[in-house]
Amino acid sequence: xxxxxxxxxGNRMEEKVTRExxxxxxxxxxRTRRLVDDSLAGxxxxxxxxxxxxxxxxxxxxxGDGIRTIDWNVTARTGTPHVKKFTEERELTIxxxxxxxxxxRFGSGRCSKREMIAELGSVLAFSAVRNDDKVGxxxxxxxxxxxxxxxxxxxxxxxxxxxxxxxQPRRLGTDISGSLDFINRVAKRKCVVFLISDFRLPGDFxxxxxxxxxxxxxxxxxxxxxxxxxxxxxxRRLPDVGRITLEDAETGExxxxxxxxxxxxxxxxxxxxxxxxxxxxxxxxxxxxxxxxSTDQPYVPPLxxxxxxxxxxxxx
Length: 316
Prior knowledge:
alpha/beta; Rossmann fold; 2 domains; 6-stranded mixed beta sheet; two-stranded antiparallel ribbon; globular
């Protein structure tokens, strides 16, 4: 006997899904808040706060003032050394640009790339709100699927996290250039942009990477752009498991591979190493910081090291 699904059944199912989503968001909130409070909030503050400075006034030089702060025009006019005084910009805007293309679903261990990206995005969002900064979100595939303008407040951050965790993309491909163009159009003031992706680019990798180089440079000049690469160990080396069929998660293209052949495994690993080298060269050559993460390793230690190295370099 077939059962007729009623509107009440549909409502109950929708309520159940909503409860599960809210429960997952709360779990992530508790876990990431603890990480932020224990180790990340202070490091985040030391890296980003003070990078934006507003001119306040000119005053006479006193011993201990930095030479770089001397206002030579006023000094020449008055005959007395004067320095420029700046105040720290009290509010930053953090924009999370997150790749949600089909390749992010892959994961060979405890989590997929998208799951790690989601938790990393949540940690960065809570770090920002902990320091009273605005947070915005761009989710993209081969077009911008969702944009949440920067905002503050607990409910805003929970919405950002909910979308990072559960947004269902309409497409599977990747267009990093298009997402950077979008950011440059909507972000009128300078902000800190975290571009988080697995950088699985369509077509020939070298050609596709070369195409995004000018976009990285333009965005890096307008904003404080930080690229975060999230990969999986199975993407770097093939296991010896005999004949398998590999499928591109974004195009559906399939290829049969004999992983028992050491030459094939070595060629695959070498090609991956070359692509990683090209990515580093391109991103850093554009004057942009690159943080590399892997799903088989905790992301907090490299994130802390990245913040520490960045702080020493920018303050040094």
